[in-house]
């Protein structure tokens, strides 16, 4: 029965029809039609983006964080983490190297580090935009107030990434301390959209206590939010967190969800994440074939790449490094796509 439902569900998504919870669950559970699902997702991504893959230069600006999320390796309570934060000059140096290599989007990602006040962040953003006016700046710095987000936007930030992680309140409370709330996380996302950012959300696949039902809630929330970018990746454990004994997420289910999201949101910017490349040597190529159209090589200084460890065994040297752009180009081409030097805005 599930097999029949899942095949019909793929066809329904291709026709932009909404699915029932039962149809979503059958599609998530049944891998028999993954090949067909990926083929349909790839066709849709080619209709909107051709064979183009956008590259983003990732700059991990700090691994200090005030929060204590139970799954995260840079959580405040991890006394084993070797902390660092980049200076403005460090960040501008990374951007300079990235621009030389062909990057036209820079992603500034970090924990919720109180050192990076609104004034500091705005100064960095405006500094990048002044030097590279033909580039986009994406921020991924966590939950902030409406006024803070507006200041960053006015300073020149174009995009903001903030994964909601789970749209189910009970599940959220199992992943985060009481000081954090799903309601606030969602409000932040709606604020970002209201201000005018190209807004990205997303979730971990296979996080502790996740169920098919909570995954369906994630999909429903994204239907309501209508983000420009959706970042998903497999949950991967970290040895210095309360969840160290939980299993990591599934490659197959992650790829299935990448394809489902491409069919649900044909226009969306959908990264093939570092986490996919971490759990499988060909993980990012698989993600591209399942409908993803963005990769985010690391532009951070080599000395700190191993310190930004949200999870164990993160790949931090080799083809995922921005400096090996030619290696990355060859890998992307081997999957049937091509990297383009482009700001890579969403195509709605």
TrEMBL record:
InterPro entries: Aldolase_TIM, BATS_dom, Elp3/MiaA/NifB-like_rSAM, FeFe-hyd_HydE_rSAM, HydE/PylB-like, rSAM, rSAM_sf
PROSITE patterns: RADICAL_SAM
One of the GO biological process terms: sulfur compound biosynthetic process
Chain sites annotated for binding (3R)-3-methyl-D-ornithine: 140
Binding site for S-adenosyl-L-methionine: 165, 185
Residue stretches in coiled coil: none
Pfam families the UniProt entry points to: Radical_SAM (PF04055)
Keywords: 4Fe-4S, Iron, Iron-sulfur, Metal-binding, S-adenosyl-L-methionine
GO molecular function, one term: metal ion binding
Co-factor(s): [2Fe-2S] cluster; [4Fe-4S] cluster
Cofactor annotation comment: Binds 1 [4Fe-4S] cluster. The cluster is coordinated with 3 cysteines and an exchangeable S-adenosyl-L-methionine.
Parts of the chain that traverse the membrane: none
Gene3D superfamilies listed in its UniProt record: Aldolase class I
Binding site for [4Fe-4S] cluster: 65, 69, 72
Record domain Radical SAM core: where: 51-273
Oxidoreductase among keywords: no
PANTHER family: 3-METHYLORNITHINE SYNTHASE (PTHR43726), BIOTIN SYNTHASE (PTHR43726:SF1)
NCBIfam families: rSAM_HydE (TIGR03956)
Identification of the protein by name: [FeFe] hydrogenase H-cluster radical SAM maturase HydE
Taxonomic source organism: Qingrenia yutianensis
């Amino acid at each position: 029965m599930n097999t029949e439902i899942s095949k019909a569900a793929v066809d329904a998504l291709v026709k932009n029809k909404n699915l029932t919870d039962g149809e979503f669950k059958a599609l998530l559970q049944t891998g028999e039609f993954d090949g067909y699902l990926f083929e349909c997702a790839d066709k849709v991504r080619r209709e909107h983006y051709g064979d183009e893959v956008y590259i983003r230069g990732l700059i991990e600006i700090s691994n200090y964080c005030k929060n204590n999320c139970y799954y995260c390796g840079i959580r405040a309570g991890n006394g084993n983490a070797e902390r660092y934060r980049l200076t403005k000059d460090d960040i501008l140096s990374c951007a300079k190297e990235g621009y030389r290599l062909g990057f036209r989007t820079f992603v500034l990602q970090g924990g919720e580090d109180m050192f990076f006040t609104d004034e500091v962040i705005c100064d960095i953003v405006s500094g990048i935009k002044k030097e590279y006016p033909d580039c986009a700046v994406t921020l991924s710095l966590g939950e902030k107030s409406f006024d803070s987000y507006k200041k960053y936007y006015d300073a020149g930030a174009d995009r903001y990434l903030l994964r909601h992680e789970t749209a189910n309140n009970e599940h959220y409370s199992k992943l985060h301390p009481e000081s954090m709330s799903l309601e606030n996380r969602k409000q932040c996302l709606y604020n970002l959209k209201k201000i005018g950012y190209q807004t990205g959300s997303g979730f971990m696949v296979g996080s502790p206590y996740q169920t098919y039902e909570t995954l369906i809630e994630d999909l429903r929330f994204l239907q309501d939010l209508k983000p420009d970018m959706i970042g998903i990746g497999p949950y991967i454990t970290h040895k210095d967190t309360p969840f160290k004994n939980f299993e990591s997420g599934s490659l197959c289910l992650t790829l299935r969800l990448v394809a489902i999201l491409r069919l649900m949101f044909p226009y969306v910017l959908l990264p093939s994440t570092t986490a996919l490349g971490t759990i499988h040597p060909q993980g990012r190529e698989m993600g591209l074939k399942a409908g993803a159209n963005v990769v985010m090589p690391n532009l951070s200084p080599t000395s700190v790449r191993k310190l930004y460890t949200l999870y164990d065994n993160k790949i931090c040297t080799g083809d995922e490094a921005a400096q090996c752009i030619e290696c990355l180009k060859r890998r992307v081409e081997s999957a049937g796509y091509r990297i383009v030097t482009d700001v890579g805005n969403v195509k709605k």
